[in-house]
Design goal:
Number of strands: 11
Radius of gyration: 20 Å
Largest sheet: 5 strands, mixed
Distance between the termini: 27 Å
Strand order of the largest sheet: 2-9-5-4-3
Number of helices: 6
Bound molecules: zinc ion
Order of helices and strands: HEEEEEEEEEHHHHHEE
Strand content: 15-25%
Oligomer: single chain
Structural class: alpha+beta
Helix content: 10-25%
Shape: elongated
């Protein structure tokens, strides 16, 4: 499942590939993955080009030349990227843009938890993104004060996109490991010092993952892009039963808020 670093890696690929690209046409194979375009391919041409690629949390937005905005959510298995037009059309390609130079921008999503939403413009995008918490890469200093009043476990708060946008199961576990906090600990039992440590751990884990192009685990791939390499540097995620890299104690795993969670019983309290 792509999280912030993987989505930002896609955004970077798109910024490179779509700068000065011309959109010559659009073909839609499945309209039920697209909201707001009213089944009109013309609306999805975005005025014939892209002026910017934005990201907040796990959502991407392409700003069209006509001012319209296409929000892209990758969900669990979504891929969105530019490939040569001669590249084989893989199954579950739901929408395809013809670009200049014989290239294609394609949206592929086998499980269809992702989707595309066409908005009128920046105001509608700002409204949509205001419903999300702050982006996990730029959490304000006062973020922790809101978190310590929540009634849930800290792991649940990290997964709640309304509390912080962009974190999923991998980076929640990694940040909690780096901060030395047990995932099941109630938010209200955290001190100001704990949440300050967590805020800086999130930032440092996400930045390190970004430098590696994200993590490539299971279904996540980048269409027309490279592979992430951060999976080799994960401290706890996917390492249940293996020794903690800090103290050597066997890492434990349990379901926390319905998600498999891994932590070190010694280093994380
Ligand atoms: Zn340990």
């Amino acid at each position: 499942v792509p999280e912030l670093p993987e989505v930002e890696a896609v955004a970077r690929d798109l910024r490179r590939a779509l700068a000065s690209a011309v959109i010559e046409g659009v073909t839609v194979h499945r309209w039920d993955v697209i909201d707001g375009a009213g089944r009109r391919c013309g609306a999805l041409r975005l005025g014939g080009g892209i002026t910017g690629v934005l990201r907040h949390g796990k959502q991407l937005a392409l700003v069209g030349k006509d001012g319209s905005v296409l929000v892209v959510q990758l969900g669990m298995t979504g891929e969105f990227g530019v490939v040569p037009g001669r590249a084989p059309m893989i199954p579950h390609t739901h929408a395809c843009w013809d670009l200049d130079g014989g290239r294609h921008l394609r949206f592929v999503d086998p499980r269809r938890f992702g989707g595309l939403t066409l908005l009128d413009g920046h105001e509608a995008l700002a409204e949509r993104w205001a419903r999300l918490g702050p982006d996990a890469l730029s959490l304000p200093a006062q973020w922790g004060e809101a978190i310590i009043h929540r009634r849930t476990a800290i792991k649940a708060a990290l997964l709640d996109q309304g509390a912080v946008a962009g974190v999923g199961n991998i980076y929640a576990d990694e940040a909690l490991a780096l901060a030395g906090i047990q995932p099941a600990r109630p938010c209200r039992k955290l001190s100001k010092h704990d949440v300050a440590k967590l805020r800086s751990a999130l930032c440092s884990v996400l930045r390190a993952a970004l430098r590696s192009g994200g993590s490539t685990v299971r279904t996540y791939r980048r269409l027309g892009g490279g592979q992430g390499a951060f999976q080799a540097k994960l401290r706890v995620y996917g390492r249940s039963g293996q020794p903690c890299l800090g103290c050597g104690m066997t890492l434990r795993s349990a379901q926390v808020v319905g998600r498999t969670t891994v932590w070190c019983p010694t280093c994380q309290t």
